[in-house]
């Protein structure tokens, strides 16, 4: 006999578990035959012990029919899936009476508080067919009854075994801290609901109307199916969390109910993480209104409960503090109206994950009533993936309930991706305040990437986003960003690539600021303002498709998004286009209050100060030459462009003018333009050619007077003086006063004409 093996065997004999297992030792022969006899004897002793103190029955029916020995302190029942569940004598009254034997005289309850299963109350004879609703509810009631016993301070744990449990209706949790646990895969723990109108599991306190709440609870690693056939489920959810805080729903899958998960006025700290929700496999050909993968909604309460909002004759509170993390929500066929629908909230975060399909939108933010709180929604790193041809919009922020007084505010989308909507990828068409859309990627929209269309939408910021391929339906030059109405809308640092129009805004959109955006591959125009741009509009420097080079013409077009233009040609410029008329929207409105542009001349032409809508300083036309700059600002009170500054490059004459004067005092008359400077050298010579005096003369015209500065270079005869006289007609005269008839004469040379910056 091998004593090492014997020692191992004897150790197993003294396993003080509730049940002793028979020894699993391979038979031996020859010298070890005696050992085999010992094994057989031990196994017989174990079987005798178990029959007296912890018998095992092949199924529940066998246990119910048995006369369990009075000595037995525990018993075991095999489930149809081959798992063994353990009972001990009942000490918890009616809540613990899971099994009766001996013609009903013995009652048994689950042996271990953290290993309670529905199978303790009923046998799941035919998986997915046997109705286990009462058994599941009994398991919940039992763990709730453990609250405060020292086993659990609150609630308890219900284990869903590796099987399919059918329920014909709702399982109700109305105590704190109840958790459901499964085995964490789609072929493992499953609960199937055959009702098309009831919840599968409901967390709800006994008195939510008067402010009752639950604290804690959860569902982990369980798959939920709705097996209702025919039409779509029209009510209910797989899991509803009502007036309950700190519920965790983690690593679960939900299929084919009206709603996957619903939160009704729930408290702080609820989490849905790493769940998969799919609806549509059992549906008809028409979507059911209100259906959603996750629905976050209000809760009716009595007046005075948690600062409620009145809607008609009823009061409601919002859902507080919910995190949705890493979830995938997919609508097949006509399974969902929205992947996620929120009708009230105060603090919801959507972090990571993926929404796909649905009929209306991947995410719908739509207040259910006036004045209910709707604030602090933040999406980070989520993929909004509407299905082209099926899903209308990616994100919809819309007032479907005509809740005109609802204060929706403080909403953000950061680092998300949007792709493939039949209509718009983001639609903001209701009263709201402070919506920030930053660092997102928008790709392929039938119409717009972003729409803002509400007079009560205020404080919308679109910044650092990438937008690719708008207007894929090609049904009328639809802009990537369409600002139909709203106030204080900033569009900055975005890249808008491929489509027809880039950004269009209407006169009802006030306080629009479009700056530092980059446009490429737009087939019509980059920025299209309305006729009569609202006060407060700013269209700053943008990198646009339109050229910065403009041919001078009687009426010129200065495209929005450019602040400095190079002018070519020689035609006099009278007017800068003031409205989007004439040749159509490909030539947009160029004028709005406060717009400032710089005209940079690359040739010689004139800007008129009176013939059109341009007014220059002094009312004098500006003959521009290469290198000149003219800065204009538009004033919509009289619809005119006013000069606010100019600069002039240095222009040197290519030829010099020399005048010899031997008989008269006058050297010569010369015309001079405004802000032009002439440089002269004047010399006095004798008849023999000796230079007797030399003067440097600077002549300047400031638009009103001509002044001359004369500096003497050499000592000269006191008989001679040089002066400059303003003729008050845009000309001046240089005088050399020859006071003695001593055959002296002057040589005057115009060295340069120079125009200097003011």
UniProtKB/TrEMBL annotation:
Recorded hits in SMART domains, A to Z, give:
PbH1
InterPro entries per record: NosD_dom (IPR007742), PbH1 (IPR006626), Pectin_lyas_fold (IPR012334), Pectin_lyase_fold/virulence (IPR011050)
Coiled-coil zones:
none
Outline the extent of the Periplasmic copper-binding protein NosD beta helix domain. 413-524
Q: Which Gene3D superfamilies match?
A: Single-stranded right-handed beta-helix, Pectin lyase-like
Which Pfam families does this entry report, sorted A to Z?
Answer: NosD
List the protein's name.
Periplasmic copper-binding protein NosD beta helix domain-containing protein
Q: Which organism is it from?
A: Mameliella alba
